[in-house]
Structures are given as C-alpha cells and as structure tokens.
Amino acid sequence: MKTKKTVKVLLGGGLFGVVLLFSGCMDSEKNIQNVQNVETQETQETQEDQETQKQQKSQIALSVSAKKFKAYIDAINANDDTKSIIDVRTFSEFQSGHIKNAELIDVTRADFKTKLSALDKNKTYFIYCRSGNRSGKALQIMKNMGFVEVYNLQYGINDWNANAFPLSY
C-alpha cells in the first residue's frame, strides 16, 4: 500500500521522480537479496546444527565387560579396517602383554590428543588400560572429540586376565 502511494507521487515528479523510483527499486532489490542471503545462511546453520545433533545422538561411548569386549573384538575380521583396538597404557605395560592387534596410544603422554586427532572418527574403537580408569578418561576425551563409536574395557586388562583371555607379547 505504501509502495503504491510512493509510485504515484514519484511518477508525477517528471524525470527526477522516475530516477528516484528506479533508485528505490534497486535498493529494494538489494534488500530482497540481502534477506535471501540471510535466510540461506540461517538455513545452512540450521542444517549444520541438525547434523551435529544427529551425530551426537548417534554417538556410542560405552564401558563394557571383558566378556562383551572379547566378543566384539573376536568379531573383527583380519581385513576389517573399520575397527581398531587401542591400548592406552604405557609402553612398558604394553610390552608386558596386550590384546592381539592392539595399537599403543599412551593416554599419559602429552601427544595423546594429537595422535587421536589423526584417527578416523567414523571407525569403531575398542580401548583399554590396566583397570579401566585411564581408558575411561580416554573414552570421554574421544567422545568429546566426536568419535562415533568407542567401547571401553570397563575393568581393564585386569578383568581380561581374570577371565583367562589370551594376550600377545
């Protein structure tokens, strides 16, 4: 309604009025484009927020018993590169006996998070330490870093040994 009145007033003003009208239209076009850009940006941010929420909801970070942990890792095929076992103990603890095919990433070292950041967050990880304390902390770190699926050996290698499961040296 306001636009119609403005058009009538401006058209009556000769060439000067037409220039003002054209200028006003250009400004309106810019405003419409700016609104569209803001709406597009808000849509993208909303989609990113939804994706983040979806990822957080689908995250698995669990502490499990030695029997369940063993069942999970026994199901890993030799050629399966979507799953990894990580021993978060020290080097000397690792040498004293570790779960077959485990990779050592010592949680007490300063470069622990750096080493984790080099890993594929979409893989499935099975982590453990001696008693479950350090690997429990590692589980939280990995969860906060956005790892999708991580299983912690709840009572560590102590529980593994109590069940007489095999170790590698």
Task: Give a summary of the structure in a few sentences.
By secondary structure, the chain is an alpha/beta fold. The protein has 2 domains: 2-54, no CATH class; 59-162, Rhodanese-like domain (Oxidized Rhodanese, domain 1), CATH 3.40.250.10. It contains 7 helices and 5 strands.
Model description:
The protein is of the alpha/beta class. The chain folds into two domains: 2-54, no CATH class; 59-162, Oxidized Rhodanese, domain 1. Helix content is 55%, strand content 14%. The protein has helices spanning 2-11, 14-57, 66-74, 91-95, 112-117, 133-144, 156-162, and strands at residues 60-64, 83-87, 102-104, 124-128, 149-153. A five-stranded parallel sheet has the order 1-5-4-2-3. The longest helix is centred in the N-terminal third of the chain and has 44 residues, at 14-57. It is elongated and about 75 Å long. Mean pLDDT is 81; it is low at 3-11 and 15-23.
